[in-house]
Fold each of these.
Amino acid sequence: MDSRSHTHVTAALRLCLHALLAGLLALVVVRAVGEGATDTAAVVAVTLLTAALYAAGAARSSSVQPKDSVHPTDSARPGTSVQPGTRAGAWWLGGLWVLWAALLVLSPDALWVAFPLYFLQLHFLPMRWALPAVVVTAAAAITSFVVHRQEIEPGAFIGPLIGAAVAVATVLGYDALFRESERRRELIVELVATRADLAEAERTAGTLAERERLAREIHDTLAQGLSSIQLLLRAAERSLPENAPATPHVRAAREAAQANLAEARSFVRALTPPDLEHGSLAAALERLCARTTAPELTVRFAVSGTPVELPTPYEVALLRTAQSALANTVRHAEARRAEITLSFMDTSVALDVVDDGRGFDPSGAPVPERGTGGDGGFGLPAMRARAGSLGGALSVESAPGQGTAVALTLPLPLPDTEAERAA
């Protein structure tokens, strides 16, 4: 049930409780007047005082709330003086009990008022005080019956005790149902929020994946083509005599290709992941380690060798591989320590992600077929596909209980100067 249905149900229960108490008090008055007892006036006076006190408290009480949500020492809320779990509520309930006890002394019929008192005690007092109060109320009702009737009957004990048991079971059952409904409501709210976050994350991931794909395609096609054109024009320019009529045109074409190559590379840089927009790959990996959190997990980052400038697709592949491997460590490895090492060597660059987690069997991980793309995917198959698209290799070493080591190795591209000399 939602909060509105809870309000409707508790409002109906409150009305029933009001009617029950009013009816039982009226019964006490009618019986006293009908029997013509000598203390009829006192019975009527105490009954009216009890009804007035109850009506005053009920009029100032707000909607019913679970009693455990407010500590008994908390003050009443503004605008109300009788609230479940407050001092005012406890004093009000204590006054009702004292008047009822006085009514018990005057009339044996007042013992039936104990039943609505059970519910009031269970509602206005914390459970550690409500149960003893219910026991005391039941004992007072039994004592009143025995004193007034001057006899001991099983019904004198069974009736109040059964009433107390029913009241306790009803209140506890209702509280349990309400707490379960609240837990389910909170779970639904959390699921809705999680679904919205997941949709936003998927949109962001799709956008980033498309940006990476465009950057890779531009670098591998337009940029490489313009670079080749520039090298060929440079070679043609060197082979032409200085005063040849075609030399200025070849030089202008080479400069145009060079300018367009710079524009293409600038466009590729604009499409790189946000982590690579501000700072180097090493700085992005260091930030990744710093923001990766898990219980009892320590992540460290180190750089080996002399860093060199890498093409954007290389940096994207290395960063995405580190993110995916570290995410697997957080989700599945239950590791205490993880290390990311970026190594620059003479002809290659390597990324190692090592953890001391529970490990797994690498032979059970699927391997993508030749030609499959790793555009924005996650997991070992995507990492292997991304490495293969750049001419590199991904290796995974792991065993159950022995941790996991993921290593990505990419060959360093030839610098432009070397490529020019080769041309």
Amino acid sequence: MISPSPHLDSPHLDSPHLDSAHLESGPEERRTVVVVGAGPAGLTVGGILRAASVDCVVLETESRQFIETRPRAGVIEEWAVRELGRRGLSERLPERAEAHSACEFRFDGERYRFPYAELTGSRHYVYPQPLLVTDLVREYADVRGGEIRFGVRDVMLHDLDSDRPAVSYRCPRTGERRLLRCDFVAGCDGARGVTRDAIPAHARRIARQDDGIGWLALLAEVPPSTDCVLFGVHPRGFAGQMPRGPELTRFYLQCPPGDDPGNWPHDRVWTELRERLGAAGAPPLTEGRLVEKRVLDMHHYVVEPLAHGRLFLAGDAGHLVAPIAAKGMNLALHDAFLLGDALAACVTKGDGSGLDGYSAACLRRVWDYQEFSQWLSDIYHGVASGDPFRAGTTLARLRRLFTSPTAAAAFAEQYLGTATAY
């Protein structure tokens, strides 16, 4: 059973990862919770803790301007919007987000609209991550008075197995190494962060899947050509269109893994998008300037468990799901709700049950979303596999979504995240 540390009264120098040289440049500070990473997960955890009057600090390697403008995910499931609102973290979201009630598949030269709201009563919300992060930063720092230290460098974690863990970092202004002694560490620093690797190899298992497929991720300064998300299942490869606002659209094109974005000049991109998203009666794509081109290799991983000592992983630090099903930001928020609530209960009420069950509770949804993403990957990429048998079964699955109410309902529940209760 985890409980808060009763007190921290002196420097703890017996860790093999920490020596006195690290402390010579500055005094040790004390916080109840240190949150590493100011993405959706870290800021949501911080917002929940500040609402419960729990002392915490968020450490972020980038600037505030960078995290508020970085292009990232844009689809939030309705249950996540509801939970953000319940915690007072979505004041501007309802009036600024676009509610979507359907998506559209295009295959065999035809259009097939899938009205998931009619089947489930739930919707998706398109709200680009930069807008959500801006809202969360404002609520945590400007409204609730939370502290964020931007631009930190060389973050290290120490003494995680003790009741006095610590996080050290290099101050960007002075170059001094500073130490934050705390009760708990929330590792919310993403796939390239340091918190996951702070867990000893013998104390974790990382399950990984590489699909052997690349996606060319494109951001275009154009309005979307339709009112919903498009999925093009084509022998030349998958293509997708995801609205990101009235004048910004995300496109994806299947490509070889590790491909060079330079191999995709403007004309080739739009030619392939027209071909793969083409269908009878479809309006023409709105074409325009491409402001981002990068290749994503479709891979997934899950760290088990998501906790070690006083460290708890949330979001991409603990699991990565490729953007195939638009689940990444939703999983990060799910982790953050559970972790923020559990930390607040432990600190303010002495109830450690939420932290004890945190990893298992998160992983149930993580694996459910991973399984759906793998199923959807087979749908997206099967026709372009070069295997006639696989292509035939892929088309059979797709047709079933539009001929079988049972298959349609099951897909809609997984697509919207309503199949797994919060």
